[in-house]
Specification:
The structure is a homodimer of 115-residue chains.
Chain A (H helix, E strand, L loop, with lengths): L24 H13 L3 H11 L5 E3 L4 H4 L3 H13 L3 E6 L2 E6 L1 H10 L4
The structure holds a DNA duplex (30 and 30 nucleotides).
DNA sequence: CCAATATATTGACATATGTCGATGTCTATG
DNA sequence: CATAGACATCGACATATGTCAATATATTGG
């Protein structure tokens, strides 16, 4: 399984450096969606926690306590990250495992490239 | 003059790649502030428009029409970008000239580095 | 000093967002 | 099938945000 997020992961708007040429409205919208997912401390810490796992993946159940937020709040933020294409998820039995989608992170990084 | 933004430009939280190690609460807060400034299409287009100027700088008066928003709205977004340390400004007579702060953009870019 | 222009600020409004408790849904296991 | 556990969703709430019209604050020219 482990399907990538269908929402925004596809329309990557990769390789559109902000500083190179004026953004189109569509590119600006899509990029803003990506950065919006990164614009919250809880989500940044989640992303960081997921990436910190030696296996590269982590059970959602192991994210609630380190984040220090309620389970519904963690679930909400994970959903935002997923819909932004920044993380992928896979259900195994009762648990859901999350991993970072490095390509998506890199795409946003590219948008901030020198020019 | 052309002083850099006093707000966030200093506490750069540069060189703190998200994916390398779990973020501290403070780093997450500061990073989120930076990405928040990028999390709006109008601000991304502004940043892009400013960067697109051959001289590297542009009068605020020349940003209203291309952005297609009201003057107060443009002024508001420029303030957000300024307070995030992403642009610098200099008043010359009646006009205010804006330019991108590439170091700040690069700092946010570094936060998204591979690991 | 007055009029004109550029920019910032204020006030108002609708909408979006982060958060939590309560509840629903699914899955494994007696 | 009943129970327990993991996760998602719902409802509610306070707060934040994008937007504009109106107004205030410079600054330049006459």
């Amino acid at each position: 399984m482990a399907k990538a997020a269908t929402t925004a992961a596809d329309e990557q708007v990769c390789c559109t450096p902000l500083l190179a040429a004026p953004l189109s409205d569509d590119d600006a919208d899509e990029l803003a969606r990506g950065f919006h997912a990164l614009a919250d401390p809880a989500r940044l810490r989640l992303l960081s926690l997921i990436a910190a796992q030696p296996e590269g993946e982590v059970c959602a159940c192991d994210l609630v306590e380190p984040l220090g937020k309620s389970q519904p709040t963690v679930s909400h933020h994970l959903k935002v990250l997923y819909e932004a294409g920044l993380v992928d998820r896979e259900k195994r039995g009762t648990w859901v495992w999350y991993r970072v989608v490095p390509e998506r992170v890199a795409a946003l990084r590219t948008a901030l490239a020198e020019q």
